[in-house]
Design a protein that fits this description.
With about 350 residues, the chain is mainly alpha-helical. About 50% of the residues lie in helices and about 5% in strands. The strands form two sheets. Strands 1-2-3 form a three-stranded parallel β-sheet, with helices on both faces. A two-stranded parallel ribbon has the order 4-5. It binds tryptophanyl-5'AMP.
């Protein structure tokens, strides 16, 4: 991880369960093609952390159902996310990558958490409020989305959650949920769940899209990780800029193209381009061409690996199967403890 990037709170000192070990967990929705916002906001941190700690990364297909109700697309995007992680350097011998719904215990835990969650808190959820503000009628899945996310994190005893800044509220809600469960069902000196910390890199916390708003599948303003050729060119050349004439000096810090260049360029190169902006005579078209070359080069190797992996769908499925096995080995005993704590007895055992 470059030195220039600073993560916000990542200490586990405040955890009542005082885990001795960092457990990294994070999820990504298979609701579309992954984009630069996903990569720089989250996936790059996942790849960087996955060799250093025990780590669980899941493809949250239950969450994706809140917005995607096309069975073929959901199945395709699910495998696509896995292929992308492997292409970007995720090593399945070092950490676990799996499909959320392969650990169905997570929905059981979510149900238990629903009963500890005030509806008024869920109504303050950012995605839920956004939909309401747009005059749309959100489904119950979207309202409850943060509770399922809390279950995702807590079922593996997660302590550190690498995400983009848009997920901060969800991690706070997860901490609240863990606290409520511990308070309701556990002795003060023996809480079941640690309170996880978000791991958000300050300088890449919100990646802008081609229109300057947050890059997001739902805004249709994304640049895909593996976009190439004409498609990539069209998107980069279409990035919205102001109308300062070519000759005039420009402020790089106010420009969407430069915001993206910063993700790829060394500090030296950034300084060189910023100076050209300020000097004038350097147009947005020049900057876009630089950016185009940078994106193309940065993902060239991963693109190659991805093409090869696309010919090995069985391997990708094997990775996911093994990942799910390891995840269930954590989730099942955790659920036994949760059921025991909550009084959910079974007549089957
Ligand atoms: P999703 O799929 O919407 O986003 C996946 C990750 O990408 C980050 N991200 C961004 N970061 C910076 N700038 C952007 N423009 C940008 N767009 C997306 C998101 O912050 C996220 O880290 N709710 C989660 C999925 C989830 C999850 C979990 C995450 C479900 N369960 C448990 C962590 C732990 C989400 O936003 O997915």
């Amino acid at each position: 991880m470059p030195e220039s990037q600073h993560a916000t709170a990542s200490s586990t000192a405040a955890n009542p369960a005082s885990p001795t070990e960092t457990v990294v967990v994070s999820g990504i929705q298979p609701s579309g093609t992954l984009h630069l916002g996903n990569y720089f906001g989250a996936i790059r941190q996942h790849i960087a952390l996955h060799r250093r700690h025990e780590a669980y990364f899941f493809i949250v297909n239950y969450h994706a159902l809140t917005s995607l109700q096309d069975a073929d697309a959901l199945a395709r995007y699910t495998l696509d996310v896995a292929t992308t992680y492997l292409a970007l350097g995720f090593d399945p011998d070092e950490a676990h990558l799996f499909i959320q719904s392969d650990v169905p215990e997570v929905t059981e835990l979510a149900w238990i958490f629903y009963n500890l969650t005030p509806v008024s808190h869920l109504e303050k959820g950012v995605s839920y409020k956004d939909k309401v503000a747009q005059g749309l009628s959100p489904n119950a899945g979207l309202l409850n989305y943060p509770v399922l996310q809390a279950a995702d994190i807590l079922i593996y005893g997660g302590t550190l959650v690498p995400v983009g800044a848009d997920q901060k509220q969800h991690i706070e809600m997860t901490r609240d949920t863990a606290g409520r469960f511990n308070h309701t069902y556990c002795p003060d000196d023996d809480p079941l769940f640690p309170l996880p910390e978000p791991h958000i890199l300050d300088d890449v916390s919100v990646i802008p899209g081609v229109d300057g708003r947050k890059m997001s599948k739902s805004y249709g303003n994304t640049i895909g990780l593996f976009d190439e050729g004409k498609m990539l060119k069209k998107k980069v050349m279409g990035i919205v800029t102001d109308s300062t004439p070519l000759d005039a000096p420009k402020d790089p810090e106010q420009d969407n193209v430069f915001a993206l260049i910063k993700l790829f360029a060394s500090e030296e190169k950034q300084a060189e381009i910023a100076a050209a902006y300020r000097a004038g005579g350097y147009g947005y078209g020049h900057a876009k061409k630089e950016l185009l070359g940078m994106i193309d080069a940065y993902f060239a190797e991963a693109r190659e690996r991805r093409h090869k992996l696309e010919e090995r769908p069985d391997y990708v499925r094997d990775v996911l199967r093994e990942g799910a096995k390891a995840a269930r080995a954590q989730a099942e005993p955790m659920m036994d403890r949760v059921r025991a704590a909550t009084g959910l007895i079974s007549a089957r055992r």
